[in-house]
Q: What sequence folds into this?
């Protein structure tokens, strides 16, 4: 049977399960846990290490610095998590060698309904564990962290936002910046003036159609300036190009359509 509960089940394999209080005990994700909209369960490979010292690391064959995660405790922890997980739950290992996490991957994980996240420590994980027990490796960016826990928490947080009810009624994950494929427009709160720096008149105008248009212009303009690669797959309409053009001209920059299309095509 497929899942039709709309909540999300997370299993986590980690030598530091206590780190996950950062998601279960704070903020939006804490509320989601309390309300049963998400579940976070952890398995610690150390609990499956049966020697006197509960060893969880081992030397790499072939030499080299550092240690790897010992196969048996890790492998047993993943197996136990699989048994407790909904049938068909996929196993994702956090790793700098993985596919880069982005909005579309977060959406895919949410669609799965459940996921087991493996947070490695030390210099890595035996290739055979990856091949036999892991469906996908995922990276949160081109830098190396000391373990997969923070990346796993990134996944939990980002996926949780998509679960209906996790964000308030007014807030909506569909309005999160990457859901639209654009960066967010600038936002302002009180006071109206900070050290002589005013909130743009349009934002204070009360004209909601105008504000909406200004926000779209800003979102497009920022995305064009900071992440033109995001616009490549968007197939921008004439009207949207014009908004980027006016955004650039307002800033005294080159707003010619030719320049804009060229930069988007190159993607940087
Ligand atoms: N583990 C260590 N660094 C990582 C990264 N950048 N992404 C995912 N997992 C990791």
A:
């Amino acid at each position: 049977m497929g899942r039709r509960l709309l909540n999300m089940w997370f299993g986590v394999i980690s030598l530091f399960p206590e780190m996950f209080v950062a998601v279960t005990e704070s903020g939006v994700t804490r509320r989601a846990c309390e309300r049963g909209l998400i579940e976070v369960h952890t398995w610690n490979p150390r609990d499956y290490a049966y020697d006197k010292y509960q060893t969880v690391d081992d030397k790499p064959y072939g030499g080299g610095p550092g240690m790897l995660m010992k196969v048996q405790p890790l492998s047993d922890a993943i197996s136990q998590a699989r048994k407790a997980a909904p049938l068909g739950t996929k196993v994702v290992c956090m790793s700098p060698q993985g596919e880069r996490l982005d909005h579309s991957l977060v959406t895919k994980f949410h669609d799965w309904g459940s996921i087991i996240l493996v947070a490695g420590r030390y210099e890595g994980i035996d290739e055979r564990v990856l091949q036999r027990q892991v469906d996908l490796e995922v990276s949160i960016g081109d830098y190396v962290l000391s373990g997969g826990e923070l990346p796993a928490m990134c996944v939990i947080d980002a996926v949780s936002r998509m679960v209906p009810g996790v964000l308030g009624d007014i807030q909506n994950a569909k309005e999160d910046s990457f859901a639209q494929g654009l960066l967010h427009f600038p936002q302002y709160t009180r006071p109206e003036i900070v050290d002589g720096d005013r909130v743009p008149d349009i934002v204070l105008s009360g004209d909601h159609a105008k504000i909406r248009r200004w926000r779209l212009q800003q979102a497009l303009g920022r995305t064009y300036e900071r992440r033109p690669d995001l616009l490549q797959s968007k197939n921008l309409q004439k009207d949207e190009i014009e908004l980027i053009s006016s955004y650039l001209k307002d800033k005294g920059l080159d707003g010619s359509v030719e320049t804009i299309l060229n930069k988007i095509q190159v993607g940087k």
User: Anything to note?
Assistant: The first strand starts at residue 8 and ends at 13. Residues 94-96, 139-141, 143-145, 148, 151 surround adenine (CB under 6 Å). The mean pLDDT is 96.
